Amino acid sequence: MLWKAVISSLLIILFYGATQTNGEKYPVVMWHGMGDTCCFPFSLGSIKKLLEQELNQTYVKSLRIGSNMIMDYESGFFIHPNKQLDYVCQELAKDEKLKDGYNAIGFSQGGQFLRALAQRCPLPPMKVLISMGGQHQGVFGLPKCPSLSSKTCEYIRRILNTAAYEEWAQMDLVQATYWHDPLKERDYIAHSTFLADINNEVFTNGLYAEHLNRLDKFVMVKFLNDTIVQPKESQWFEFYKPGQDKEILPLKESKVYEQLGLKQMDINQKLVFLATEGDHLQFDRKWFLENIIPLLSQERK
C-alpha cells in the first residue's frame, strides 16, 4: 500500500504548502501602552520573540521613545502624542529595513498612536494595523490605571476628572489628549489637542482619510471584560451618544464613520473587528497565534 502513503504525503505537502510559507514577511512595528516600555521581558519583549519565531525571523521593531527605558516609560504619561509621533515618523524613515512597508501592532493607547501615524506619516507605508485594545474614540473614565505606580494613577484620575481640557493638562498629560467627555462635547472638540484632530472632528483633513484607506487591513481588538477602558466599545471605534454616558452610538451612525473614511474602508472590507475574553490586554498564546499571526503572515512583494 505504498502508493496510498505517497498520495497521502503529497496531499499533506500540497495542503501545508498552500497555507504555510517560508517566504520573507513584512517587518512588524510595535508601540506599547501606558505604564509599559518597548522591551520589558514580561510584556512586549516576550511578544517580540513570539513574532520573530512565528514569522520566519522577520524584523520586529518595538518602539522606544527617547534614549533609555526610563524616558520610554515616562513618555506614556508625560510626552505629548504629537511629539511622540514626530519622533517615531523620523525614526521609521531612517530604518532601511522598513522602506518597503511594515505591519504594526499597537497595545492600548499605542493603538491610537499607530493609527495617527498611518494618517500623518504615510512613508514608509503601513500595511496592516492591529490595535489591541486601542481607544479610538477616547476614554471617559480610568477605573484601573495599568501603571507601576498607584500614586501616578491617582494623580492622573484627579486631573482628568477636573481639568482635562485645561491647556496645561493637554500639554503635559498624555491621557488628557484622548479624554472624551460626552457631557462636554463642545469642550472636547475645542480643546482636545490630539484625538479630536486625528478623528477629523475639528475640521476634515482629507489626507487623514486618504492615508488611512491605504492600509490593507485595520484590525481592532476589543477585550470583552475590560475594566480599564471606559467605554470598552471605544476599542471598536464606538462611543457614547453625545450628552450622556450610558448608551453607545454604533460606529455606522457616528460622524467619524464618514469623516475619517471608515465607511469606505468598510465597503472595501478593510475593517476587521475581533473580540476576546479577558480584561485589558489579557489574551492567551493560542488566541494570539490563531487570530493575529495569520494577519501578519503575508509575504513581502
Automatic annotation (TrEMBL):
Catalyzed reactions per annotation: S-hexadecanoyl-L-cysteinyl-[protein] + H2O = L-cysteinyl-[protein] + hexadecanoate + H(+)
EC numbers, comma separated: 3.1.2.22
Domain of life: Eukaryota
Gene Ontology cellular-component terms listed: lysosome
One MF term in the entry's GO annotations: palmitoyl-(protein) hydrolase activity
InterPro entries assigned: AB_hydrolase_fold (IPR029058), Palm_thioest (IPR002472)
Catalytic class of the enzyme: hydrolase
A biological process term (GO) from this entry: receptor-mediated endocytosis
Signal peptide: 1-23
Family affiliation: Belongs to the palmitoyl-protein thioesterase family.
Record-given protein name: Palmitoyl-protein thioesterase 1
Organism of this sequence: Musca domestica
